[in-house]
Design brief:
Aminopeptidase; alpha+beta; 6-stranded mixed sheet
């Protein structure tokens, strides 16, 4: 599936400011470095699996065509039962409720399938789409922090 998603990554998934992802995300790089950095990041995440850390990568399909990714991550999951998620959709696929469905699906897996006790998420404060998904799925604001994107500091809204 990753091979089928490469053209979407090549075309770019962050096409307008404010940039929705934090550094260092390969989706801002120029092609072909963008695709290679994206794949290496996934391979590195898949290679690092143990009791204290795991990350599941899901390709999102609409009518059999890949349009994005949804990740689910557990850090010290056996101890805390907490998961976090990250996702992206190709431009043109946003605003149709797909992002909410994607996150709801991995939350179902986390709670019903893996026995999670809590889910966390975060997004830049000026990323209304991601923050709307968190709100719609019952997350509550859980403080703020800072991160960088393209080398500039920007505020993050935490959700829990």
């Amino acid at each position: 599936m990753l091979e089928r998603l490469v053209p979407v990554v090549r075309a770019g998934v962050a096409d307008v400011a404010p940039w929705p992802f934090d550094d260092p995300t390969p989706l801002y790089a120029d092609s072909p470095d963008r695709e290679w950095r994206w794949l290496r990041g996934i391979w590195a995440g898949r290679a690092r699996v143990d009791e204290s850390f795991w990350r599941l990568y899901f390709v999102v399909l609409v009518d059999g065509e890949p349009i994005g990714m949804q990740n689910l991550k557990g850090s010290d999951f056996a101890k805390f039962g907490t998961v976090s998620s990250f996702s992206w959709l190709a431009p043109g696929q946003r605003g149709r409720g797909i992002g909410t469905e994607m996150r709801a699906a991995v939350l179902h897996l986390a709670f019903a399938g893996l026995g999670a006790r809590e889910a966390e998420s975060d997004a830049f404060t000026d990323n209304p789409a991601s923050n709307k998904v968190s709100r719609a799925l019952g997350y509550e604001p859980n403080g703020t922090t800072w991160d960088t994107r393209r080398g500039e500091a920007a505020p993050i809204q935490r959700w829990g």
